[in-house]
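Minimal example, chain plus 1-deoxynojirimycin.
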Amino acid sequence: MARRPRDPQWYKDAIIYETHVRAFFDKNNDGVGDFAGLLSKLDYLQDLGITCLWLLPFFPSPQRDDGYDISDYRDVHPAYGTLEDFKLFVAAAHERDIRVLVELVVNHTSDQHPWFQAARRAPPGSPEREMYVWSDTDHKYKDARIIFTDTEKSNWTWDPEAQAYFWHRFFSHQPDLNFENPRVLREMLDVMRFWLDMDVDGFRLDAIPYLCEAEGTNCENLPKTHEVVKQIRDFVDRGYPGRLLLAEANQWPADVRPYFGEGDECHMAFHFPLMPRIFMALRLEDTRPIVDIMGQTPPIPESSQWGLFLRNHDELTLEMVTTDERDYMYLAYSADPRMRVNIGIRRRLAPLVEGSRRRIELLNSLLFSFPGTPILYYGDEIGMGDNVYLGDRNGVRTPMQWSADRNGGFSRCNPAALYSQPIMDPVYGYQTVNVEAQLENSSSLLAWMRNMIALRKLFKVFGRGSIEFLPVENRAVLAYLRRWDRDVILCVANFSRFAQPAQLPLERFRGFTPVEMFGYTEFPRIGDSSYPITLGRYGFYWFELTEPADLP
Ligand code: NOJ
């Protein structure tokens, strides 16, 4: 049990891999992935170099929101195994120095949860009823936006049994818990204790901006909500120091910043607005959107860390862009309207960049060199595709492609029994894109990703250092310095589909030699004037700037 903590800020150097138990590997061949399957693939993950697994919800659930509709917080969905299987899996992950993050869906439950079943029957005002947010009218909290715009018309739904409306920020089968009622937080802390005692390394706090409501506000990021988050952090720090809280707050940087508190709320938070701007910059061949959003990103406390990602299990969200930017993104990345869902684009990384290996590498170079901890989405390390014909966000949640065998090697079941058909098109289908083939090919994307991860892990500066963007006249080229301790890293990236030159203002490093980090190649020494560089299309370099005395 008491294996950790080595460094309480371990998350700063982590490489996080996001996956769904259901989608990874099906050990008992019933068509659904399971913990035994995930355990059997830990060697693969260790070999890839990741150091932390973030598991999507695996709890009992009617599965109407892929498990984000929880009906029992203290068990494992029977299709994925048992609590025993979970414990074995956590122990096996820890043996390989892989940490495990689980989901804490704090904001809402399934309407099938016993709390809701009791609430709807309990008299108004009773403690059972008050576990959720009720109203006699659907006119309260009018200023709160609707998040799942494709499915929901209102944040209120009438419950005939309770004879009242209940509040929900997401699907109408996901009633929001009522954090005005102290019992709700007590229950949640109890749930946390349950999993922390099973040695999990932390939680992704789902949808935390919406915990509390207040009339006349948009019901997001309210002071009361921050009070709740502080209490959650206090609970962790007291009983389980070294465990992690990762905030899912899809907000502008200035609104996410308070979720770090003064180092007394979440340790990490996703940087949502950066991600669409990376894709925008790529299509525009202009790095301005990235520099702009990083300029709007406030400093964070010393112990805090951004979570960076290119893609995840949801749509590529366009909530944190302007209307014009949104229109542009739809135009650029979702020619087929089927690719859109809610306010976003439901596609995986490889198809978003038309399978271009160079662009995949370029985007990953940013993911691995920007300030924060990189979070990879399963399958993106082999360039998996998506299926826009599946409903909701299921097209980016298809089975992991292990080999060219039946069901992509994910399961030996009758293909009809699979929880989802695997990707089968000629470009991204499992016969073309799979782990086995890529393991055998030293120039595969998978091999490149392993290399990239290994390199990143050698340099703490990436997870811990400062960033400074260099002014470059050619806007297709992004140049930035990462610094930590004595390390100075220069990253240069070309967002254009053509070769580009740039002059880098590096005079202050006169006498230093840029050493290219993948091949350990010395480049010409930096002189008195700006440093000229040329990059191939979508090319990038990482250089260690080495002082004359440090050169071998
Ligand atoms: C955020 C999750 O990422 C998403 O998948 C889910 O649908 C909503 N929260 C609602 O739980």
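Residues 65, 68, 105, 170, 206-207, 248, 313-314 surround 1-deoxynojirimycin (CB under 6 Å). The chain has a mean pLDDT of 97.
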